[in-house]
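Shipment paperwork, digital attachment
Item: protein structure file
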Amino acid sequence: MSKKKIYLSGPIMDECPQAAATWRERAVQALSGEFILLDPMRRNFKDR
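Attachment content:
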């Protein structure tokens, strides 16, 4: 059976980079064994 996907949506643009990334990193650590996690923070948002 294929793994279900979770998109780690949440504030990015108006957050400091650490705040936007910390909870996503924790989610990856906790859930990556059971789910495929899609992290929008892989993109570079510095130009916006």
